[in-house]
Amino acid sequence: MTKKIGIEDLRSRKWFMNPDNPEMTALYLERYLNYGLTRDELQSGKPIIGIAQTGSDLSPCNRHHLELTKRVRDGIIAAGGTCIEVPVHPIQETGKRPTAMLDRNLAYLSLVETLFGYPLDGVVLNIGCDKTTPALLMAAATVNIPAIALSVGPMLNGWFRGQRTGSGSIVWQAREMMAKGEIDGEGFMELVASSAPSVGYCNTMGTATTMNSLAEALGMQLPGSAAIPAPYRERSQISYETGKRIVDMVWEDLRPSNIMTREAFENTIVINSAIGGSTNAPIHLNGIAKHLDVPLNNDDWQQVGHHVPLLVNLQPAGEYLGEDYQHAGGVPAVIGELIAADLLPHPDVITANGKTMRENCAHLRSEDTKVIKPVSDPLKAEAGFINLKGNLFDSAIMKTSVISEEFRNRYLSNPDDPEAFEGRAVVFDGPEDFHHRIDDEAEGIDEHCILFMRGAGPKGYPGGAEVVNMRAPDYLLKKGIQALPCVGDGRQSGTSGSPSILNASPEAADGGGLALLENGDRVRIDLKKCTADMLVDDAILQARAEAIMAAGGYPVPESQSPWQEIFRDYVGRFDEGMTLRGATKYQDISRR
Ligand code: FES
Ligand code: MG
């Protein structure tokens, strides 16, 4: 460790050892002594490390952090620091109404105030469940005190009658099985519960595994930290190492802005393609970048990431689950394979352990090539996202790696036009509208239709709903038609393997073209040109826009809580990271 700062430079000295203001020092000190901290721990020059605690009974995915934090504390103390546990606004992906995404920015805001306003020299970010990871990385980005992330780790693999059952992904399968009458409500419950056999976050390559892997890919975790399942002994051991490391990072003055550079984000986009990461990743990464003033948009995702092959064979794009990912070498093995094939654009970026990505990973390879494939034998050749544009929206993401053979044969097999298809629009205004109408045969939905979901973006359905991956009507499922093309201004769960076109920006509720679409319009989608257009005359679209304006804009339901109201007033677009207006102009505030 090369010490770059001394005791007098510690931020916490302003509170606990301020010679210019002994009265305030006493006032700041006395209350931290009242539960047993000693003056030595607060005044002798030990870095004071916050542990941003996202584990609680309300957040089962992250709850195991309550245990792991004991080892983090041991590590911090062993390295000569003092620990202060910092509560974070709870977020649980599947339990929060209307959506956990609404709370990402709330947890961000509150953690920024906490890290800025209290005597902390560094912070351990307890990440895990989907939105906890971006919320904490965004806060660390804004405050810019030395920070290291600690993943809680995925659950053990789920099993049902000898088959792996993956959290989230099993729900989509179970829904189809129930629609076809293969299981009843009890069977549904049993099958879904089998996918969650232990503490930890979702064991599939959903948004949680994606974002935890990407926190490591960005360089913000110790190498090898992301994929260790929550109950494994190595998870407790890396918690201890993480605690030790953050104290050194304070002395080295290694800050989020030194690690999360444009180069690190480009690496992360490549790694996201290789792992088959969630379509929520561009929203979160673009948001984190915005808080660091690093330019990043959905064009970058296509340019940097589209050509990268899929290496990780995890559900929903593949077969395996979290434990298999760990046994195959986890994120370092993926990075090692990419470096060996010269696919990682910036292997010499610095990471949280003070070494470069190349030093950490270049010598590593897959330990199980069924689960992590080499670049020479990938699962899919081009696994990244494409960024579609047109008169429906300025930007929408599609994960081409999950296009099934059935889908390809049905929609992308015209020899004259192999990457494009046209269809008749069926438009739903929000998830409730979808549930009311989807199985009604009078709607006349057939295999030539494209399903549209709108009113599901950050403003329309505050936070944006994970509802764009719409199932086909029951009567089509029974005929063997598994999926129709889906497009929308909402999101979809990372555990869904549906090739939807989503995160459309701007959304219908924010002046987006989707608001102008009507049932029965022809729509053309071209995956080669990356376009999505309503085949409707401009004059007609103009008239529709005027009618919507005259009616007071695209209608959205009323907010249900104060935060929803404030959020809607300040939130930006998905393609710009869904950050809050006014928040992104604050950078590096720990030095204020
Ligand atoms: Fe929390 Fe999947 S629901 S990690
Ligand atoms: Mg989700």
From TrEMBL:
Transmembrane segments: none annotated. InterPro entries: Dihydro-acid_dehy_C (IPR042096), DiOHA_6PGluconate_deHydtase_CS (IPR020558), ILV_EDD_C (IPR056740), ILV_EDD_N (IPR000581), IlvD/EDD_N (IPR037237), Sugar_Degrad_Dehydratases (IPR052352). Keywords: Iron, Iron-sulfur, Lyase, Metal-binding. The keyword Lyase applies. Residues 370-577 form the Dihydroxy-acid/6-phosphogluconate dehydratase C-terminal domain. Residues 46-360 form the Dihydroxy-acid/6-phosphogluconate dehydratase N-terminal domain. One of its GO terms (molecular function) is metal ion binding. Pfam families: ILV_EDD_C, ILVD_EDD_N. Belongs to the IlvD/Edd family. NCBIfam families: PRK06131.1, PRK13017.1. This is Dihydroxy-acid dehydratase.
